[in-house]
Amino acid sequence: MDISTSCSPQGQPVFPKLDPAHPPRILLTSVFGPYGVDDDFGRSENIMELFHNQITKAQGAASLRFHHRSFGLYFLAENLDADVTILDFPSKDRFICELRNGYDIVGISFITPNFLKAQTMAKLVREHSPKSVILLGGHGAAIEGVEKLIDCDHVIRGDGIGWMRSYIGQDPNAPIKHPIMPSNDYHMIYGIPMPGITAGLLVPGVGCDNGCRFCSTTHFFGKAYKPFITSGKELFELLCRMQDQDRYDTFFVLDENFLRQRERTMELMAEMEKSNRLFKFHVFASADTIVAFGVDNLVRLGVHLLWVGVESKSGPIFPKNEGIDHKALIADLRNHGISVLASGILCMEHHTQDNINGDIQFMIDLQADMIQFMLLTGLPVTGVYSDHKEEKKLRTDLPYEEWHGQKELNYRHSEFPGSSPEEWLNRAFREEYERNSSSIYRMTETAVRGYKTLSAVKDADAVLKVRTRQLADRIQEYRQLLPTISRNAVNPLEKKRAGDLEQEITSLLGPMNFKQKISSVAAMIIAALWSIRIKIFSDTVQPKTRLTHYRGGKLYAE
Ligand code: B12
Ligand code: SF4
Questions:
Q1: Which of 93, 226, 347, 368 is 20 to 30 A from 547 in CA distance terms?
Q2: In terms of pTM, does the model score above 0.90?
Q3: Phi-psi region of 3 (alpha: psi -120 to 50; beta: other; left: phi over 0)
Q4: What is the structure's pLDDT at 298?
């Protein structure tokens, strides 16, 4: 169990006696909005979205738009034998209002760039609910000396489930219950809901034992992997329960390196094949584990989207990338119908004004479906943070609100003064979009490439046939957007690509049926309205405030 707290002199947790006759009333909250706007607490570059924040942000109306709940809070609530209320994405006023309900414990989950919001919320707790115990958790808890900077009672670093169970007198090592919930509540492109059913959330574990020096999650969980679910059989049973309850057939796997637990994944695959319940997955995995697992296995497993950290070509090679030909690997994956999100880090220590463009071009040339560009930002507890601190390069003048990696460097780098990091970043995103076209175009192309490969396999077994059919279904969903992609194309190249792809699909699967044609026209109209909306107003979409109640670890009301 990863635990620490501010409140004991030896750094050991102190668990006050709670009255067992009265299970505590707990409020768990994320930080308040609005998010991604320039105000006293945050910045417009720090959007509460994954793709639109750091991946497809330059793609205008074609940017993929998702809202993800603060999953850690739901894991905590599901595993506590107490009355727990989750307040996700509150406004400041809504938070104050909730505090008036008088909670014994208020747990605030936050990350480093939201430090100021967490600090303000702790003050509000003291003011409006002075008897409440304040707990701080999530990655922001790694900030050095946070216990002195924020008025609180306990700081929990690493996994919070075991800590909170101990705190309220439960067995910290009891099996972990996984909540059944969607991976996102809002998924949209061109103002239109993304085709297909929302994916369910699957968190098989937290942390990673690879220890890459820039990575928050590996360091936050003590450079170790903490599985929530240990066997493939258990994973399979959980997925079946999720499908039976909420019809999910695809899962967003929030595990930093899912394929690294090879035995578990192979067992999951065997169970799926045995029962003919062939789920689909979006996963994160490092290049070495992808190669070891093999593309054919990935196809059989049903991986539709793979996020791989390429990081940098020119600097010191991370062990996970040693000997890997990323371009060939990505082409192979896409040829098998697996969309790839590749991430690269800009303004690393070895980068100069002369060599950084080489890395950017390398990333663009990978021709992945999507590229994340992020500035090297040593967040507290990482190796990069310690190195920059030791070398006295850390920018203590830069408020935590700016430590989000999409504008300024949080360390002094003589090659990249002033606004130069942001300029490189914006140039990289723009060029990637112009040369490779929108990500939705590329994802459609990947499905077509995969369908061609799989349908050409002569002795395909039942599993491969299902995977081929799933790709055909994906093509039929995505092709309805091709006229919209063409109309909103970034340049004539994308327009031509979209037209050619529709022709290719027609020759493979026939023309669109009447229903597809109608929805294709509707999509174009909605996209035109959405484009006007984002041009005249803004493209910010705030996540909705959510209140969820749990009683004794069971979902009670939302
Ligand atoms: C989903 C996610 C998001 C969602 C946010 C959803 C939300 N509602 O907040 C989106 C996509 C919008 C997002 C955006 C950003 N994110 Co983010 N995100 C994640 C991600 C991928 C998963 C988090 C998760 O749910 N994990 C699963 C749960 C079970 O684990 P957990 O949250 O860590 O919770 C456990 C413990 O931390 C602890 N715990 C958590 N909260 C609490 C509260 C209490 C009271 C207690 C006791 C314990 C506790 O117990 C939990 C169970 O073990 C993580 C990476 C990762 N794999 O963890 C990054 C991560 C959290 N994000 C990070 C960052 C920096 C950002 C961005 C700034 C973009 C960026 N530069 O990467 C923006 C900021 C947006 C904003 N305005 O705030 C960093 C945080 C680093 C740090 N040191 O602060 C991470 C670690 C990724 C990284 N870059 O390394 N993110
Ligand atoms: S492999 Fe990925 S998750 Fe693991 S330490 Fe490296 S960057 Fe972090």
A1: 226
A2: yes
A3: beta
A4: 98
Ligand 2 pocket (Cβ < 6 Å) reads: 208, 210-212, 215, 217-218, 256-257, 286, 309, 320
Q: Which two tokens stand for residue 554?
A: 């069971």
Tokens describing residue 98: 């909730």
Residue count of the chain, please give it: 558
Q: Which CATH number fits domain 25-177+543-557: 1.10.155, 3.40.50, 3.30.70, 1.10.10?
A: 3.40.50
Element (H, E) at 310: strand 303-311
pLDDT of res. 196: 73
Alpha-carbon distance of 75 to 513, in angstroms, equals 43
pLDDT value for 493: 98
Considering every ligand atom, which ligand is closest to the CA of 70? 1
From the CA of 212, how far away is ligand 2's center (Å)? Answer: 5
pLDDT tens column, 479-489: 999 999 999 99
**Is 256 near ligand 1, meaning CB less than 6 Å away?**
yes
Would you report the helix, strand and coil content of the chain in percent, each value rounded to 5? 45, 15, 40
Topology of domain 186-433, CATH: pyruvate-formate lyase- activating enzyme (3.80.30)
Cα(318) to centroid(ligand 2), Å: 10
Ligand 1 centroid to Cα of residue 216, in Å, is 10
Neighbours of 371 (CB within 10 A): 25
Query: Where do the structural domains in the chain lie, given as residue ranges?
Result: 25-177+543-557, 186-433, 445-536
Which H or E run contains 372? strand 370-375
Amino acid in the structure at residue 500: D
